[in-house]
Design brief:
Layout lengths: L5 H13 L2 H7 L7 H9 L2 H18 L3 H13 L6 E6 L15 H20 L33 E6 L7 H6 E7 L2 E6 L2 H11 L30
Antiparallel strand pairs: 1-2, 3-4
Helix pairs in contact: 1-2, 1-4, 2-3, 5-8
Length: 236
């Protein structure tokens, strides 16, 4: 194997970062204008290819991370169902299933409402006043997981959109690979996931479905003029 110069070695090192030839060439010091062309030339160099393969093999031995293991993880993210992590539910509104389409309470809310009424009624009675009978409105039984009532005059059957987050401790292996954590923001909880589009791209490259397009151009992006020196045929 021919000895590599300093810039070639730098290209090999940078290429291992993200396997992007053009970006590796730029980081190795080649001009961004010709980096695409330089990358194609460098990757076609047998000595550089041998250096890349040798470096990959050493990294695999050092980290004990094999290509098969990485590929399995990528495929897990690819086939994972994001709905295992979070869902958007269309649920009933407070009026959907209340008696007479009036505001409906949960059992606990109705109990609190009844206690407050009793307190207000007692205070009013001590003053010689009356606040009238207790109004249960739509009654008890509100369940936010119920579907909307298509006849509801308040939400018109549209209900309310509510996010639902699953317990990440109980996710499948594929969903755990897709899950990238949560972020608490001023607007609430943001669930982060790895990009499935990126995983599709990586899988496609592994299977040889996508070929990196190498555009060859002259200085400043101008068309490249190629001169072919074709010898004249010998005179008979």
């Amino acid at each position: 194997m021919a000895k590599l110069n300093a810039r070639h070695k730098r290209f090999v090192t940078e290429y291992l970062v993200d396997l992007n030839g053009t970006q590796a060439a730029i980081r190795a010091g080649y001009s961004p204008k010709t980096a695409n062309e330089q990358a194609a030339r460098l990757l076609a160099n047998v000595s550089i290819q041998e250096a890349i393969q040798e470096a990959m093999k050493k990294r695999e031995q050092r980290t004990e991370i094999t290509a098969d293991r990485v590929l399995k993880e990528i495929f897990s993210i690819f086939e994972a169902d994001a709905r295992e992590i979070s869902e958007l539910h269309r649920c009933c509104c407070r009026y959907c299933w209340g008696q007479g389409f009036q505001y409906q309470f949960t059992l606990g809310e109705m109990r609190d409402r009844q206690e407050q009424y009793n307190l207000d009624a007692t205070n009013a009675m001590l003053k010689g006043e009356s606040i009238g009978p207790f109004n249960p409105r739509g009654g008890i039984g509100y369940n936010a997981t119920k579907p909307p009532n298509p006849d509801c005059p308040e939400c018109f059957g549209q209900g309310e959109l509510k996010p639902f987050f699953h317990d990440t401790r109980k996710l499948s292996a594929a969903a755990k690979s897709l899950y990238a954590g949560v972020k608490i923001t001023k607007d609430g909880i943001e669930v982060k996931m790895h990009s499935k589009d990126k995983m599709i791209e990586l899988l496609g490259r592994h299977l040889g479905m996508f070929k990196e397009k190498v555009e060859v151009s002259g200085e400043g992006g101008a068309p490249l003029n190629v001169i072919f020196n074709i010898p004249r045929p010998p005179k008979e």
